[in-house]
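User: For a benchmark we're assembling, each entry needs the component sequences followed by a predicted structure for the full assembly. Here are entry 17's components. Please fill in the structure.
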Amino acid sequence: MSTFEFLLQGLMTAAQPMNLLYALIGVTLGTAVGVLPGIGPALTVALLLPVTYRLDPAGSLIMFAGIYYGGMYGGSTTSILLNTPGESASIVTALEGNKMARAGRGGPALATAAIGSFVAGLIATIGLAFIAPLVVKLALVFGPREYFALMVLAFVTVSSAFGDSTLRGLTSLFIGLAFSLVGIDQLTGQTRLAFGVPDLLDGIEVTTMAVAMFAIGETLFIAAQGDKGPDKVEAVKGSVWMNAADWARSWKPWLRGTFIGFPIGAMPAGGAEIGTFLSYATEKKLSKHPEEFGHGAIEGVAGPEAANNASAAGTLVPLLTLGLPTTATAAIMLAGFQQYGLQPGPLLFATNPQLVWGLIASLLIANFMLLVLNLPLVGLWVRLLTIPKPWLYAGILLFATLGTIGANPSVFELGMLLTFGLLGYLMRVFGYPIAPVVVGLILGPLAEQQLRRALAISQGDFTVLFTSPIAAGLLTVAFLALAVPLILRARGRGEVLSQMAADED
Amino acid sequence: MKHFILASIVAGAMALPAAAADYTIMAPAGPGGGWDQTARSLQAAMQQEGISKNVQVLNVPGAGGTIGLAQFASQQKGNANALIVGGYVMVGAILTNKAPVTLKDVTPIARLTGEDEAIVVPAASPLKSIDDLIAALKKDPGSVTWGGGSAGGVDHIAAGLIAKAAGVDPTKVNYIAFAGGGEALAAILGSYVTVGISGYGEFESQIKSGTLRLLATSGEKRVPGADAPTLKEAGLDIAVQNWRMVAAGPGLTAEQKAAITADVKKLATSKTWQETLKTKGWQDTYLDGDAFSQQLAKDISATETVLKEIGLVK
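Assistant: Structure for entry 17:
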C-alpha cells in the first residue's frame, strides 16, 4: 500500500465517533493546561496514563496527541495577554504578542498565533506522514559538532536580533550564560556554583526564570511607576479579527516558521525553543517593518508560533521512527506505547500500521478541532485586558506564583522566582533587554555540552569543529551574520541598522 | 471572566498535591523516566489489586533523585503511608553529588525490578563481537568513545567496570554522557561514538530491526531472545544490573515496616504486577528484608569503589 492509502485508512480509524471524542477531550484538556502556567502537557499525559489504561491503544494515543498539540496552542494565549510564558517554547511569542495586546491588537495577535499554529501543524503533520524516514536520516547527520555550530548560529542571530544596543544585548546574554552554569555538570557529574544548596543541583529552571523576568519584573516595574505609567493598556482597538494587512504580513512568516521549526523539532537534540529563536531572528531580518519589532510586530508572533507547532510535529518523527523521545511529553507518550506492549521504533510502521497512521490522521483532525475551538474564544480572551490594571497585575502575580509552585512545590523555587523578578525589574529600569538572559540560559548548556562532547570524541583536536561540511557551513553563516553588519556600519550605513534594531521591551 | 477566575482556582487546586491518600508514592524524577514509570505502575497495580484504594504519585525531579530523597527524608519521618521509588542511579548520584541525605536516612523496603545493560555498536561498525571491543580498548582506550546516560550513572559505572575487568585503566575510559539512553541512541546510530551502553530496553527495537548490533549484556543470565553473550561468558568477571527499589520514611516502628513490606510483597507477587513487568520488559528481582539490606550495602560500597577508580569521586 502506498503512503496515501495508509493515510486514508488512518483517517477512517481516527474518524470513528469514539476516537473523535477522545481527540476532542484531548485538545480541550491540552488547551486548558497550555493556558495554565506550571501544568504542562507532560504532567497531564502522565496523570492520564493510568486512567487510559483500559482504553484501546488507538483511543488513548489519539487523546495524548490532542493534549500535546493543544498544549502548544494554549501556551501562546498567556504569553500574549499576560506576558507570562507558560512554557519555554512560547517565550518569544510574549515579546511581540504582549506589545500587540497592549496596543489593542490582542485579537489579531491571538488569531495569527492560532491560524499560524494550524497552518504549521497541518504542513508538519503531512510532512510527518510522507517524509518521516527521510527527515530522521537527516537528523542523524547532526552529531555534537554540528549541534555546536547550530548553537553558535543561534547565539549570533539572537544576540543581534534583541535590543537596540549590541553591548547591552550581549551583557544580558552573558548574564543568562552565567546562570546556565549553575548545577551538576552533565559530562562529569560534578556540581558547579550550587553553593551547597540541593535545590540548585539541577540548575535554574527555565520557566521559573522566564516567568520571573517577564511577569514578576513587569509587575514590579508597573507598580513602581504608580499612576504615571506611560503604557496604557487598550483592550481592543480596531477589529478583533485580522485585517487584510495582517493576513498579508502573516502568511509568509507562518510558512517560514514551519520550515524552520519542523526539522529542528525532528532533531534528537533540537528542542522547540531554538526554532522559535531562529524564526524570530529571521522575521526581524526579512520584515518590511523592522521598526515595529519591539513594539508589536505581527510577524514576530506569526513566525515563532508556527515554528513551535511545527516542531511539536517534528518531535514525533524521532519518536515514531527511532523510539527516541526528545521532549518530556514525548517520553511519556513512549511510556504510553509501552503500556500496550508496543515499542516505537523502526519496526512500528511495519508491525502496527493502523495505529501509527491512525495517530497521524488524528493529529490532522485534532488540528482542525483546535482551530474551531480557539478562534471563537479570541473575542473572549481579549476582554481579559479590560480588567483594571491593579487587578490584572495582581492576577498575573497570583498566576505566576501558582504556576511555579505547581511545577515544583518548593520554597526555594519561590524565592528564586522573586529574586529573578527583582533582577528583571532592575534590568528594565536600566534599559537592558530581558529576552537574551532566558536565551542564554537555554542555549548555554546545550552549546557547552555539545562542544565538550565533540572535543572528547576527537580527544581534544579542535579542527574537527570545522572539518564536517554541515558544521563548517553553519559556522560560515554565523560568521557572516556577525561580520556583515560590522562592515556595513564601518561604511557609514550604521544609521539604517541601528534604526532596524528596536528595543524589544 | 468568572469562568477564568474559577479556572484559575481549579488549576491551583490541581497543582497542589492532594492530601487524602492511602499511599503517596514519590517519584524523585520528572514525568516519563524510569522511576516515574515505576511509581505509576505501582500506583495502578496497588489500586487494581485492592492493596490500597487511593494512591497518589508525586514527582520531585532533580539531581539523580537526591533532591526528592532529601525532601522525602525530612517530611515523611514516621509516616507509614509514604513511599519513595529509587534505584542504582540514586546510589551513584548520592556519591557524586556528595548528597547530605543518603539511603541510610530512609527505610529501604524491597528491590522490585532489574534491567540488564546492553553494549551495542551501529550495524556498520567494524567491531563484530565483545572481544573486538576489548581488543580495541586495550590498544587505545581513549579512541573508544562510550555513549550512555548521565555521568556517574549505571551506564558510566558499567563502562568503567568493563575496562577494569579487561585490564585497562578505568580513568582512561572516554565516556560521553548524554541526558539519557535515548539521546545517546542518536549519537550511536550516527556513529559519533564507538559503542553505546544503556538499559537493554532503550536499544531493543533497534537491535531487533538490525540497525544496532548487540555485543553483550551485563546480567548473570542472557536476555531472553537476545543473541549475545553475557559479559561473564565473554570472560569479564562482572555482572551489573540497573535495579529499582521502593523505600519508606525514616523512624518507622518494626510493625509499621513489616506492614509496608507485606503490602509490597503482596503487590510484587500479584498478577497485575507480573503483567506490568512483562509489558515493560523489566526483570523480576524481588528481594526484601535482611537479604535486601545486605545486598544494598554491598552495591553501595562496590559503586563507591568504581566511582573512585573512574575518578568521579575523590
